Each structure stands twice: as C-alpha cells, then as structure tokens.
Amino acid sequence: MKKVVLSILLMSFIITSGVSPKEQFAPEDRNCGYSLKFTGLKCITPEGYYTNDAIYFKIDGTIWPSSQRLSMTSGSYYDLEGYVDYDFSGSVTIELWDDDAFDSDDFLGSVTVYCSYTSDGVARFTEDGVDYKLYYKVN
Ligand SMILES: [Ca+2]
Ligand SMILES: [Ca+2]
C-alpha cells in the first residue's frame, strides 16, 4: 500500500517537476508579420550527470528567462505556453544553454526558425551530448 502511494507521489512529482517560468518574453509589438510562441520544452538527455541542467534560451541573442533557469533532467517537461510571444520577420535564431556555476555555460545547440514555418514545429538541440525538444508555433 505504501509503495503504491509513494510511486503515485513520485509520478506526480515527475510530471509537475519544475516551477513555471516567472517571466514572459514578449517584446513590444514590432508588427513584423510573424509571431513565434513556445509551447513546451522536453529533456530527453541532459548535459549534467550529477545535477540538473539549468536551462535558458537566447532568442535572437536575448536571454530568456533573464533572472531564472529551468531546472531539467531526463524526462523533465516545462509547459511554456503563454510565456514567449516574439514578433519577427524572416527568421529567428533560438539557442539553448546550460548555466554552469563553476565553469563556462554549455552551448546545447541552435536552430533557425523561418517565417515560412507557419505551423506547429519541433526544434531539436543535440550539442554536447544532449537531446532537448522545443515545441513551438509560428503564426
Ligand atoms: Ca553543464
Ligand atoms: Ca560547462
């Protein structure tokens, strides 16, 4: 009986692990015609073995979230619906980074999303042995 309760608790911990980001990334409406929205971020393989990755993005060079990191490990998922709404024209470059406390941050990959991608998309970040999937929308 106890074991069942524990595994249910554990499961709900895994599903809800990670608090929501506090900040939105929605620079002033630049009326560029296209808008990039994040849906969620999934970690399949993290960079760190002993500690969680401390994830942030660079969206066209701007760090988001600026004062917070997304704590992620194998199986973590962050619901990012409603946090990023970035107007662009042409293309937008998204980089994924792991914030390391004692040495330089790890670059986990870069993707370019074009305005012609007007549908739901999945971007994959695979530098440094990681596997992260970013779900996004362009409209
Ligand atoms: Ca690291
Ligand atoms: Ca490092």
Describe the structure.
By secondary structure, this protein is mostly beta strands. The protein has one domain (20-138): Immunoglobulin-like (Sandwich). The protein has one helix at residues 2-16, and strands at residues 34-45, 53-59, 62-64, 70-72, 77-79, 85-88, 91-98, 106-114, 120-125, 131-138. Bound molecules: calcium ion (CA) (2 copies). Residues 47-48, 98, 100, 106 line the site of one calcium ion.
Query: How many whole angstroms does the radius of gyration measure?
Result: 16 Å
> Whole-Å distance between the termini?
49 Å
- Name of the CATH first level: Mainly Beta
Series of secondary-structure elements, N-terminal to C-terminal: HEEEEEEEEEE
Describe the main β-sheet briefly: 5 strands, antiparallel
Hetero groups in this structure are: calcium ion
CATH topology: Immunoglobulin-like
Instruction: Based on Cα principal axes, name the global outline.
Output: globular
Strand content: over 45%
Low-confidence stretches: 1-16
> Could you report the average pLDDT, rounded to the nearest whole number?
86
Structural class: mainly beta
Strand tally is 10
State the helical fraction: 10-25%
* Helical segment count: 1
Give the number of domains.
Answer: 1
What is the name of the CATH architecture? Sandwich
